[in-house]
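Thread: quick sanity check before group meeting

JM: Hey all, I'm pulling together slides for Thursday and realized we never actually wrote out the predicted structure for the chain we discussed last week. Dropping the sequence here so it's in one place. If anyone has concerns about the input, flag it before I start.
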Amino acid sequence: MARDKVARFADEPYWGRPVPGFGDPAAAVLVVGLAPAAHGGNRTGRVFTGDRSGDFLWSALHTIGFADRPSSRRADDGLTLTGAYIAAAVRCAPPANHPTTDERDRCLPFLARELALLAHVRVIVALGGFGWDAVLRALSTAGHDQRPRPRFGHGAEAIVGPYALLGSYHPSQQNTFTGRLTAPMFEAVIARAAALSVAPPGSGHPPAA
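JM (edit): ok, ran it. Output follows.
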């Protein structure tokens, strides 16, 4: 996909490699998406950058106070996150935006290691059912299993080990253009994550790392 470019980006170089996570190393909130978009993160080299899904995400993060600007088109545009970190379950752009089981399993250790390095994370926002499943798998490898297994849904919440897990529909064009996911719906989940990330001890929410 980095070789077969779309016309509007024909003159641009593509990253075309695994896309790392991005954000504040001291983040209390981790957002986990599906995979880099073929002509978004796969092109720019930064997750959720340069596509419509990213526009939707950055706008919400800016509204709630995690991002210093409401949009991001390039990896070198100076965007800064405070208190939040963004990662993807799969690190390369998958064919037709549908990761295979093999891709999912090969990328899982990277998410698990990234989570282990983010020592201050208290809240994880999973985007879509695929992101939700990836987070639960990563937490399981760290010894945090929740039974019965929490079910995904928009606005779903679960406590898994030391983390609060929140679910949101993925900000894909399929969801945002049809109205399945609106800006207020998405902002409500991000605002809930922000609130849980600073919940005081004894409130029933995860303790600070």
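AS: nice. The chain has one domain: 19-197. Residues 19-197 form a domain with the Uracil-DNA Glycosylase, subunit E fold (CATH 3.40.470.10).
JM: adding both to the slides.
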